[in-house]
Structures are given as C-alpha cells and as structure tokens.
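LAB NOTEBOOK - FOLDING QUEUE
OPERATOR: T.R.
BATCH SIZE: 2
PURPOSE: Compare the predicted structure-token outputs for two unrelated chains run back to back under identical settings.
PRIORITY: normal
REVIEWER: second-year student, initials M.K.

ITEM 1
FIELD SEQUENCE / FIELD STRUCTURE:
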Amino acid sequence: MAKVQDVARYILEKRSDQGHATTTFALQKFLYYSQAWMLVSRSIPLFNDEISAWEHGPVVRSIWNYCRNRRYISPRDIPDGDTDALLPNEEILITRILNLYADIPDACLGDELEKASHLDKPWQDAYCNNNKVITQNVIHDYYASLQADPSIAHGARIPMLADISNVTYISDEDSAFLDNLLAR
C-alpha cells in the first residue's frame, strides 16, 4: 500500500506535467476524493492516514505539515513521496479524478473543491457533529451510494470506475427490477 506522501507527490507531479499549479487546499481535497473513490472501486484504502473534517474541508493531517504556510505546493515540497509505490490501477484512478477537475482554473480549484466537499455528507456529518475524523466506512458508504445512484445530492464529480473496479453498485430501484426479473 502506498503512503499518503506517495499519493500527494503523484498528484502534484501529474498536475505539474499538465501545466497546472496546485494549491494546498486542492491537494488536500484531491487526496480525499482519491481515497473515497479507491474505497468504492476496490474496497481497500489508497493510504492509511486519517482524514479530518476541518473548516475548509477534508484534510490529511500528515500532509498538512508539508502545506503549512504555503498557498501553492509542488512535487519537490514532498521529498519523501515515491510515485513508483503506486500500482497502475491507483495511478489510473487518481489521473481520472484530476481530469474531472481540469476545467477549473488553478487559482479557483481549491475553493471549488472545498465547496464540493462541503456538499458531501461525510464532511458535513463529521464537521457539524464535532466528530472530526471522517472514517473510511463513512466515506465508502456515501460515495458507493453515489456510484449506484448519482441523483443523490452531492458535490463530488463521479469518475468512471467500471474498468478498474472489482465491485459493482446498483440502486435500490435497479435491485428491485432485477429481483422481479429473476423471480419470473
């Protein structure tokens, strides 16, 4: 399993390679969404570090130490990150998440990701109930429900997971349809 520093450096390198600068806010939210969609697609965490619900959205505390007192962060700011530690399916997933947000200007991206995370139930529940840790189970359950039924109110953009996922999610409505079909 990759360390969160490996994932952070990968995110920063990919964005830099695409000509994007990355704010510390954006990095934190990309880590959160990468963890969320890995939990949904593979039922395993991308990294083991806890994610906390801070005022401005989800934060991985161990990466915050690299971000402190910076607006922008670059790959060289995380020298102990090793992008070779990521598996190919992890790289594909992270790249898809980054591409979902490529249309947002760099200077606005962190704020847009903050707004999106604030619309999502895991951050809302943890922050508003003073339970500052957003657990992997809560993250998984919420984003899996979005994968099954994207009509649920949410802020996150939903990546295509079918070719890298080892899990399939369906809505309650689709489940009932299949039950009826199989009962014939």
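ITEM 2
FIELD SEQUENCE / FIELD STRUCTURE:
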Amino acid sequence: MTAPAAAGELHETLRQMLAVLEAERQALAGLDLAAILGTARDKDRLCAVLDRGAGVGGDGFPLDEECRGMLETARRLNETNRQVRNIIAANVARRLGALTGAPQLYRAGTKYALVAAGGAAARRGGSI
C-alpha cells in the first residue's frame, strides 16, 4: 500500500472510530445494551484495521497532525466511556448488594463517585 493510500485509510478509520466512540457514549447514556454491544463489535473491527495498518511496509501508518489530533481525541473519548462503564457497574453492584444484603464486591473510587453524583445532579437540574 502506498503512503497516500495508507494515510487515507488511517484518516477514514480514525473518523469511523470517533463516530463509534460517540455512538458508544450515547448508548451508555441511554443504557441501550444492543447499541453498547454493537459499538463494542465496531471498535474491535476498527482496532483490527488499525493493527493491520500498523505493520504496513514495516513503517506503519503515516501520522500527520490531523491523525495525531484524531488519535488523541479517540483516546480521550475512549477513557471517558470507560469511566462511564465503571460508574454503571458500580451502581449496579451497589443496587444488587442492597437487595441481597451482601457486601459490595466492586467499589468505584471517590473520583467516580463524584462524577456519578455530578451526572445525577445535572439530570435533576442541580449541582453536586
């Protein structure tokens, strides 16, 4: 694959990844399990494309400023989505523990608790 073709493929793959990460955020916000699973499959497929491209000609994809910016944005979006997944898991574990009277097996750190409280407050129209 030529360098311009590889650069075009990388740009398109990163644009798709950003769209999938945004769709994942929406799915998490709506607790839409089918969409969450769909975005997980899409991320896996796009990561496979990126993995294949990383070995093109031994040099991998060429990284220009736009690609670096998209990669950084994708990293931040993925981290945000990971934190939201952890908050959801902590809330489910807390509710299950309350129902069963069992001790909590999964504990979100203080940072996650504040983020969760802030999100709940924002949905009620207030602040933490």
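REVIEWER COMMENT (ITEM 2): The longest helix spans residues 65-100.
FOLLOW-UP: none requested
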